[in-house]
Amino acid sequence: MLDATSSYNLMTDTSPVDNRSRRTPVDDRTGHRIVPDTTRRAARIPGNRYGNRPTMKDVAARAGVGLKTVSRVVNGEPGVTPETEHRVQEAIDALGFRRNDSARVLRKGRTASIGLVLEDLADPFYGPLSRAVEEVARAHGALLINGSSAEDPEREQELVLALCARRVDGLVVIPAGDDHRYLEPELKAGVATVFVDRPAGQIDADVVVSDNFGGARDGVAHLIAHGHRRIGFIGDMPRIHTAAERLRGYRAAMEDAGTAVQDSWMSLGVTDPERVRQAAEKMLADPQPVTAIFTGNNRVTVTVIRVLAEHPTDVALVGFDDIELADLLRPGVTVVAQDAAALGRTAAERLFRQLDGTLLAPERIELPTRLVTRGSGELPPAH
Amino acid sequence: MLDATSSYNLMTDTSPVDNRSRRTPVDDRTGHRIVPDTTRRAARIPGNRYGNRPTMKDVAARAGVGLKTVSRVVNGEPGVTPETEHRVQEAIDALGFRRNDSARVLRKGRTASIGLVLEDLADPFYGPLSRAVEEVARAHGALLINGSSAEDPEREQELVLALCARRVDGLVVIPAGDDHRYLEPELKAGVATVFVDRPAGQIDADVVVSDNFGGARDGVAHLIAHGHRRIGFIGDMPRIHTAAERLRGYRAAMEDAGTAVQDSWMSLGVTDPERVRQAAEKMLADPQPVTAIFTGNNRVTVTVIRVLAEHPTDVALVGFDDIELADLLRPGVTVVAQDAAALGRTAAERLFRQLDGTLLAPERIELPTRLVTRGSGELPPAH
DNA sequence: CCTGCATCTGACAACGTTGTCCAGGCTCTA
DNA sequence: TAGAGCCTGGACAACGTTGTCAGATGCAGG
């Protein structure tokens, strides 16, 4: 694993609630007085704390003007003669001055940054989502700070609170946990928040989700329409809202078709490839094997494709989430596609509408899914 | 496109150099004095600028202690009696206080955040890279701010400078441009910087790259070893270092084999699917068509796979970058794989070593690539 | 009871920026 | 030439936090 034994470690102590136990008097300073900051990078020239970055004061001194005049020039405010402005600009260029946004933020109260907490940036589903959020943020002049919760509620909370401590203007959260009451003080304090992909737990907030239930129901109904009755379902832990909704859609479709679902057809909560593989193989090895499988997310789908590729008989497959190259496989993979970018974009836009102050009551926005037929979902039952 | 007509727009004016022209006296304030901040979110209770967030002062007042004592409790510093600490904790919980890291940063000089500038977060290659950087950052208690340059040098610079204005402690940059002299003042000021995937231009800095040259050469040599001589190359603009290196590898392998490369075999700088498709089709329609294609990156590979899937004769293919499901296609796609996560991890670790102050001379770290044979690269020449 | 010492606490300045406000110089008019 | 009004520039406080330092308190020993 990663080790962080280095001296650079600014664990941010985000939860003032829990640090009672952390009372470790780590006075790692050397008592020396001559060197006021031992953490300063060795190569730096002594100066102020940011290396030796010039400040507006330095620029002002060099240009022979007042501090505020520099501020005016830097921010393009009116009331500076071209001459003065020119002098200031020269000083800025000569010193390599760059405004310190930390100080600016402290003064202005807005950070022009928003936080995005998602599950795993390495998951191909979240890349486009994140990118979409970023584009909207960029259009509003804001930067994006993001972090992965790794599907761990505790880590999600830790991240969210760290972002709040940074005073991000808003948060886009893909929840890992199901209880977000810890966010109440933040919401009350005016942190704009939008949940995406899954709803918030225990609190009232904006949510942008896909129609997981409807999508799964349609996907399973599609299999049923092609003659399948024994349909397997492999999905994530029902603790996760999307997984639960998709399971509900599966059950609903089966019920609509008048088919009693057998426990052995369902595998819930398995997510690592090896166990997904086992689950799929078990369903297929049953004396009454499933003739089709509905998979609850992209990762499961990929693994099941691998299993089916080795399986002697044709088994139909519909997966939730689109996957790249799905059209090039033989058969092509039929999926219930959701638009990750649209989720992100919608959420971010909603967020900035909150920030504009034109805030309405919390709303739940549901985006439709789309059944993409490519072959695997149209295979007839083998038995 | 996205519009940002809303009132929330804190375009951060990152370049004091260029704002001479932006002198627009936008006094959008209402002259009213009673309401000092009209941008405040409507729903908020009037208070300080962060909604009405309590400050340490408020906590101190409520707990009946001094400001500094609150600070001590929040930071787990020693020298507070359990009684006092308890009173402070109660006040913190009651008020929902959360330390303002902006102020902390201003005081301490370190932001505990690093910036990551990459090309496109939606590209499956960068997801794992970004995630790896994030994990290292997390291990060091730092947050990750990231942005996409969309392969636009100007946008890269804009982003990097915005991050510098935030005083991120360090930068991991996947360069879009080839001139990074604009970073000189920042480097001099002590901003730790590591370039990944492609080297920096015109400045001396740490770089972590894959062995693009060697990987491409081996990939093409692999095709040659399987009997191919007329081998096409489709890659990105040679302006991009990786693309140039891979092209160089292609040429080297061809030269080693004593094969003169014909211009019609190469397509450089096409990147959007439609034009890649045209380029591939043109090579295949030649009177002396290529019998194999080497593709310069994952996106090109995917498009070429589509073209080859429709093509009547078997054409061998080796692609740079691994792609998901490559093993499930028929034939499986042979690729030169680079380890995106390792790139990110290595770069981030190097960055934090810089931040530790144990700084060495700028170094170039090259990670090996791996040829993964799956079938498409082992097809014999059809002609 | 006083001194010395250790422990705990809080006043104060500083971080770098921006908002407010006033001073000084200018132009224009009477 | 004086006065009004405008334009430009700068002094100052404030944002919320942390480092410094000195004061207050408690306790042991003389």
Descriptive key words:
alpha/beta, Rossmann fold, DNA-binding, 6-stranded mixed beta sheet, elongated, 37% helix, homodimer, 434 Repressor (Amino-terminal Domain), 383 residues
Query: In terms of quaternary structure, what is this?
Result: homodimer
Number of domains of chain A: 3
CATH class identity of the largest domain in chain A: Alpha Beta
- What is the residue-mean pLDDT of chain A, rounded to a whole number? 86
Name the largest protein-protein interface in this structure.
A-B, 118 and 120 residues
Share of residues in helices of chain A? 25-40%
Structural class of chain A: alpha/beta
What spatial form of chain A do the alpha-carbon principal axes imply?
elongated
SSE topology string of chain A: HHHHEHEHEHEEHEHEHEHEEHEE
What's the CATH topology name of the largest domain in chain A? Answer: Rossmann fold
Name the poorly predicted regions of chain A.
1-5, 11-49
Instruction: Tell me the strand percentage band of chain A.
Output: 5-15%
Computed CA radius of gyration of chain A, to the nearest angstrom: 27 Å
Number of helices of chain A: 12
Strand order of the largest sheet of chain A: 2-1-3-4-5-11
CATH homologous superfamily identity of the largest domain in chain A: Response regulator
Instruction: Report on the biggest sheet of chain A.
Output: 6 strands, parallel
* CATH hierarchy: architecture of the largest domain in chain A: 3-Layer(aba) Sandwich
Number of strand segments of chain A: 12
Spatial separation of the terminal alpha carbons of chain A: 48 Å
